[in-house]
Amino acid sequence: MENSIGMLKEALIYMDLEAEDKFDALKTMAEDFVKLGYGKASFTEAVLEREKNFATGIPTQTIGVAIPHADPIHVADKALGIAILKKPVDFVILGDDTATVPVEMIFMIATNEPDGHIETLQKLMEIFQNSALLDQIRQAKNKEAVLEIFSQI
């Protein structure tokens, strides 16, 4: 299996994404996964439904992040997308349905392997535990800078 962080696609990196709420941000990202051939027609709805039922917000030491994904049946090809939001949007915290976290970055995962998201999640959790690295990603000036950061991970 390829390095899961190698799944990051330049076309799925969003700089200063404007969103009214989490569902607006997720819809924008998921629709592009479909347009670019990474998600099947059912992908967008599957991501939105999963977020309603299984929270993906994670508070880190410095910022809030989210890790939305859909079941492999909705995925055509594996990819990772990142949205750096212009303004934070609230996500319910993973494992705590009573609290929210203002999310500044969304890491959307698409994998067509049954447990394929687990390796990617493990790599992302390593990133989330590194405050300096998260800040570097958040402050990147363009997509190329984000790709450069990920090429060194």
UniProtKB/TrEMBL annotation:
Gene3D superfamilies for this protein: Mannitol-specific EII, Chain A
Domain PTS EIIA type-2: 6-153
Source taxon at top rank: Bacteria
InterPro entries: PTrfase/Anion_transptr (IPR016152), PTS_EIIA_type-2_dom (IPR002178), PTS_SugarTrans_NitroReg (IPR051541)
Family matches, as Pfam families: PTS_EIIA_2
Protein name from the UniProt record: PTS system IIA component, Gat family
